[in-house]
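Need residues for this backbone.
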């Protein structure tokens, strides 16, 4: 079979049946996707196998009672030749249908001689073929992306929205961090142990911003297991679904060499004798007569002339003959007007020419007299090629986004539409599996589009009913047997998605930590982490009541759980502090969302002895 898949305008179906239900081309003028089924019909298995060998067959409809063998035996033979082509078996026997699905048959259709079901049969085989093709496209895309990721020198990764689970990481992690992929998958917080202690707060703050819906781009130092210190730049982008950050995708790369060069250049600039030599561009200085009197190392290196040769050369000798007059006029313009800008071909010692762009300005003494002209030159031979490369890159990006949006999303929409039709006509657990596969493909498409189109979320305040957003969050978070009490009907001005994340984190905090805690100190960090017992931490809170109420200038969320010890209340909003197993960033994200809105948050004890979080400074929307 071909390695490239697409959903065509017509599906070619091989029908093997003495009394075929499909006796003409079936058209679908009002449906999305292919317009028709093209049929090849035969009544014998041997003849059908010849067609399968010679023709491009997309799907097979076969009766169970063929003259030369059973439909099930025919399906077994087909599977020996092609393990993927969909095979739909026509039968009137319940036992045959059950047995067939456990062998080589993809699906079963009940034959009923008394009823014309040809249209249903056409839709069923069409659905099977389109699902097969869509799955093949997604599998092919995933395989190619995985191959690209494994060959990339950049570290590519996908975390869950709260950083507690690593969902994907490529082998570059082992090269950059010096640790195994398996160890990161076993402990998603492992990379934090490599980050230099003076950079950890910045990294944690950036992670919290991303979990709150904002992208991040930062540089920090890491220490590899052998003690080697490296610089890393990381870019992270949140994936937001229904107002909640569900995944975080990003890329990291080693920038140690760039940092080394920057450090060396800074050291050179600190020396009063060599500032111009640290410049990557050409530097020149002319006296009041227009003669070259000072230059940097770049001029000597780019022209191939020794400093002694440059000292004895006229300015014109540094340029191609055709450009010397225009250069002279440009220098005169600098003396007259105070500045100049021109392009000319620099002539090297071996006789070659290189296009440069020069700028310069007049140098004056304290008394206003002219001392000369100084400026810089920059090679422009690479400018056009860089612009062309940038345009090509943008074209590839547009093409990539087009492939994801059209060539993948359109077939997926087709498959989803046909799945809805099939679920109305046929109740099957296989269709539920198809829906789950479609959802996974959809998630992959959204992640790819996010990587291709980087954006920044901004605070967008609007009137938000507290009751509505809290009820939505309650159905989103795993709350077990906990109970919600709403004692407010207030409408506040807030960013809806971030307010929803605030309540999700606070509700999750109450449900997960509303049981008897056990405090332990994390090794090597000096931080305390409070965790429930194993039996408690494996499920949601039992018998817990969470209350959301209204304050004069805000709102609160309280529970009747075990509460937060008074000596820990000042620390709960710090990154890394957790009352249960996990990264400990949930309340820090809440604090960040509150701060972004210009509100304030405090934590205390509820009337029932549990935890109570109060958010104040909130603007209410009045009727």
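Answer:
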């Amino acid at each position: 079979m071909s390695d490239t898949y697409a959903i065509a305008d017509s599906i070619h179906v091989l029908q093997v049946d003495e009394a075929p239900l499909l006796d003409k081309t079936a058209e679908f003028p009002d449906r999305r996707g292919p317009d028709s089924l093209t049929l090849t019909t035969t009544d014998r298995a041997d003849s059908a196998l010849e067609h399968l060998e010679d023709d491009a067959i997309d799907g097979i409809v076969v009766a169970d009672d063929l003259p030369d063998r059973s439909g099930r035996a025919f399906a077994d033979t087909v599977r020996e030749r092609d393990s993927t082509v969909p095979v739909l078996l026509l039968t009137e026997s319940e036992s045959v249908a059950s047995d067939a699905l456990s062998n080589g048959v993809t699906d079963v259709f009940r034959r009923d001689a008394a009823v014309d079901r040809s249209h249903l049969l056409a839709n069923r085989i069409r659905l099977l073929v389109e699902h097969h093709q869509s799955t093949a496209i997604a599998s092919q895309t995933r395989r190619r992306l995985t191959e690209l990721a494994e060959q990339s020198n950049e570290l590519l990764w996908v975390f869950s929205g709260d950083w507690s689970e690593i969902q994907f990481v490529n082998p570059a992690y082992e090269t950059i961090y010096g640790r195994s992929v398996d160890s990161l998958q076993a402990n998603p917080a492992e990379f934090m142990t490599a980050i230099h202690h003076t950079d950890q707060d910045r990294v944690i703050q950036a992670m919290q911003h991303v979990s709150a819906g904002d992208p991040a781009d930062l540089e920090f130092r890491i220490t590899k297991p052998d003690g080697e210190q490296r610089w890393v730049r990381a870019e992270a982008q949140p994936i937001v679904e229904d107002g909640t950050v569900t995944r975080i995708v990003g890329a990291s790369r080693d920038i140690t060499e760039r940092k080394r060069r920057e450090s060396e250049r800074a050291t050179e600039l600190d020396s009063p004798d060599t500032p111009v030599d640290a410049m990557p561009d050409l530097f020149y200085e002319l006296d009041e007569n227009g003669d070259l009197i000072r230059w940097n190392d770049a001029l000597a290196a780019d022209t191939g002339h020794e400093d002694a040769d440059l000292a004895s050369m006229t300015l014109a000798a540094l340029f191609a003959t055709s450009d010397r007059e225009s250069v002279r006029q440009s220098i005169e313009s600098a003396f007259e007007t105070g500045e100049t800008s021109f392009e000319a071909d620099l002539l090297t010692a071996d006789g070659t020419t290189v296009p440069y762009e020069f700028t310069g300005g007049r140098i004056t003494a304290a008394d206003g007299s002219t001392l000369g002209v100084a400026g810089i030159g920059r090679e422009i031979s690479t400018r056009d090629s860089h612009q062309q490369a940038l345009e090509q890159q943008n074209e590839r990006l547009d093409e990539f986004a087009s492939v994801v949006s059209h060539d993948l999303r359109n077939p997926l929409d087709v498959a989803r539409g046909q799945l809805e039709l099939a679920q109305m006509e046929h109740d099957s657990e296989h269709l539920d599996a198809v829906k789950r596969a479609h959802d996974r493909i959809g998630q992959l498409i959204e992640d790819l589009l996010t990587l291709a189109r980087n954006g920044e979320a901004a605070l967008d305040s609007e009137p938000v009913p507290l009751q509505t957003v809290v009820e939505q969050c309650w159905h989103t978070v795993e709350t077990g047997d906990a109970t919600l009490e709403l004692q407010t009907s207030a409408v506040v001005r807030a960013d809806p998605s971030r307010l929803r994340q605030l309540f999700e984190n606070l509700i999750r905090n109450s449900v997960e930590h509303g049981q008897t805690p056990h405090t332990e100190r994390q090794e090597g960090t000096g931080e305390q982490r409070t965790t429930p017992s194993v039996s408690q931490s494996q499920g949601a809170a039992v018998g817990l009541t969470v209350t959301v109420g209204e304050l004069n200038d805000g709102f609160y969320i309280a529970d009747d759980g075990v509460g937060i010890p008074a000596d820990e209340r000042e620390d709960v909003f710090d990154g890394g502090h957790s009352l249960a197993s996990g990264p400990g960033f949930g309340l820090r994200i809440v604090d960040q969302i509150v701060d972004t809105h210009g509100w304030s948050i405090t934590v205390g004890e509820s009337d029932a002895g549990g935890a109570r979080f109060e958010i104040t400074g909130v603007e209410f929307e009045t009727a």
